[in-house]
Amino acid sequence: MADSIYETFPAEWQISSPELFVETHTSRIIMVRLADGTPAVVKALNETGMQEELRGAHYLDWHDGHGSIRLLAEKGNLLLLEYAGSRTLLDHLNAHGDDAATAISVDVLLKLLGNNGKGKSFAPDLRPLREQYASLFKKAEIDRKQGDASIFVEAAGIADRLLGNPADVQPLHGDVHHENILLGARGWLVIDPKGLLGDPMYDAANMFYNPVERQDLRASDQRVATMALTFSRAFNRDIRTILGYAMSHAALSASWHTEDENFEEAGRSLDVARAAQRVMASLG
After folding, report:
1. What is the pTM of this model?
2. Which superkingdom does the taxonomy of this entry point to (predicted)?
3. Using one digit for the tens of pLDDT, what is the confidence trace for 34-52?
């Protein structure tokens, strides 16, 4: 059966009532109960997941529940995770509007920013942001050699300057968006981190790019300007830095879609980048 549970869980975890929730290209997500009846999640990583998701587990371990779910235990390819809840920030946006959702994202990001990991060292496998931007730099170089002064070229230049002068370098989630922020017993928490390392304004940048199905929000100059000002005040960072990460991240996403020959999504991503570009230009 497609929903069979064939994993063997460590006896010391004392978990029960396993139920397959979803299977992805990297893992099987299994809902379980802890010994006291509290719901939890087991993520059973496959070979791809072992290569791609352990960085995220190390991110969770470093944050230890400050703004994120807790990594409760780890053994082999199995991760035992705190259950974050079922209500997403997208649900909250749909019920209460974009500004209300943005305010919650600020609170969550502030918790993540304010954590010092209790003095723990950064995991050595966290991916540096310059590596994260590799596809954008590659696309920009192709365009440059062809004499095309594209938005990819401009965004790559902005990214290069930002990455050369980072602030508050720390472990990054790498994919903060409205469906990765959930409301549970401990409040709003992030789930499913990628595990990067760099300037935390990269995590803020992904909020401009989301929700992905709301192009009316993502590509709105007014929304970009309002969010950028909100983030600048909340995080005490220069608004041009925030907009630079917003623009370059959207262009990076477009470069990924271009590599996949998904040119429609690449175009939608570039609309987001152009909105950030216009707002930056309006600042003079």
Report:
1. 0.93
2. Bacteria
3. 999 999 999 999 999 998 8
Residue 114 has pLDDT above 50, yes or no: yes
Select from 129, 94, 102 the least CA-distant residue to 214.
94
CB 30 within 8 A of CB 45: no
Within 13 A of 32's CA, how many CA atoms are on the CB side? 26
* Residue 5 within a domain: no
Q: How many CA atoms does the CB half-sphere of 74 hold within 13 Å?
A: 13
- Token pair of 85 as six digits: 């809840």
Query: Does residue 98 share a domain with residue 75?
Result: no
Taking residue 281's Cβ as centre, other Cβ atoms within 10 Å add up to 9
Q: What is the pLDDT of residues 58-113, one digit of tens each?
A: 999 999 999 999 999 999 999 999 999 999 999 999 999 999 999 999 999 999 99
Pick the closest to residue 277 from 237, 215, 221 (CA basis).
221
CATH classification of the domain holding 44: 3.30.200.20
Whether residue 254 sits in one domain with residue 207: yes
Parent domain of 46: 11-82
